[in-house]
Amino acid sequence: MSKPWGFNTRILHAGEKPDPGTGAITIPIYQTSTFVFESAEQGQARFEGREEGYVYTRLGNPTTRAFELKMADLEGGEDAVAFSSGMAAISSVLMALVNAGDHVLTNAVLYGSTYDFFHGMISRYGVSVSHIDMTDPANVRAAITPRTKAIYVETPANPTMTLTDLRAVAAIGKEAGIPVIVDNTFASPVLQRPLALGCDVVVHSATKYIGGHGDVIAGVAIGSRELMGRVRAEFLRNLGGVLGPFEAWLLLRGIKTMALRVWRHTENATKVAEFLASHPMVEKVYYPGLLDFPQHELARRQMDGMGGMLSFEVKGGVEKGRRVMNAVRLCELAVSLGDTQTLIEHPASMTHAVVDPAERQRVGITDGLIRLSVGLEDPEDIIADLDQALRA
Ligand SMILES: Cc1ncc(COP(=O)(O)O)c(C=O)c1O
After folding, report:
1. pTM of this structure
2. Does the CB atom of residue 111 touch ligand 1 within 6 A?
3. Fewer beta carbons below 10 Å: N end or C end of the chain?
4. E strand or H helix at 182, and its extent?
5. Residue 81 maps to a domain
6. What is the pLDDT of residues 216-271, one digit of tens each?
7. Does residue 48 sit within a domain?
8. What was the pLDDT predicted at 256?
9. Is the shortest distance between the CB of 188 and ligand 1 below 6 Å?
10. Using CA atoms, how far apart are residues 162 and 134, in angstroms rounded to an integer?
């Protein structure tokens, strides 16, 4: 048997073949809502799942399917389902796993809307949620109840960069028979592959490093054929958070350079983190690649690289932080992350404004925290811009 392809080869070739009709090397945008059947019998067979083939784009589309197959391959899962946003992927997977009366464990620090989904929304449907400090996996074991049906982890977590030991939590989940779902958005499959560490499901905001160019909102979930089949048949079909073929095509285009971009983001972020850590106006920097980051060793164990995201606190608190964000000239003051350009934002008043202020303080999302998605500019220019803003 020949050697399996490496990750960089699979980024380009997995899930895609030249178009059988025309030989086009790039998959066409199958911009169609519906697919014509050859006969009534064929239509029935497709609806009943007895014959493979497309029916209606809410249930599947060739351009979208190519993206799903590529993501399943890159994350090492059996199958994938694409969604119109990261939140559609997260909510659909969770709703496929729990019923009224069940309990979910999540880590304390989560992206704001994910926190709101768990804290403010899913509880209305009779599901209880415990947000716990997962930096010690023993806390996960201790918080499991007979009703716990899912363990949901974001690592590195948005925005404090807190890590969870995926191998340890996956082992606890296996022992208890509870699936572990990981939001791998910050790392991307280039730097971290949770399924290979024993976790069960990966979700992404594909809006970020996968698309990579700030021009598409999308999500994807990767896991077993059985679970993905259920997610598609029930939650994609009935809630309808489907990814459009054009957006899928943008993702297929963006992903071709994902590894190149993510490694360059990492290189740049390392330089920016080191610069900030030595700056007299900076109180603290949160970047897993820094030697004094409390979970640096864990980062080295479970990630191939440290990524393009970091957070920092400036001396002088909220007011000074606001002045820094208003003084940048190159960095763009905007939410989202993983874009080509450097983006700077204030979690407490923007991405995490929905989190209860006391809870934000408790988990380290302080009012003075600034989040940076380090872009692909020349790192000297990013550093010079931050320097002038910090001194402004
Ligand atoms: C870690 C993380 N997960 C999920 C999401 C939600 O993704 P989307 O905006 O594509 O719905 C975000 C968005 O910022 C995020 O940062």
Report:
1. 0.97
2. yes
3. N
4. strand 180-183
5. yes
6. 999 999 999 999 999 999 999 999 999 999 999 999 999 999 999 999 999 999 99
7. no
8. 98
9. no
10. 9
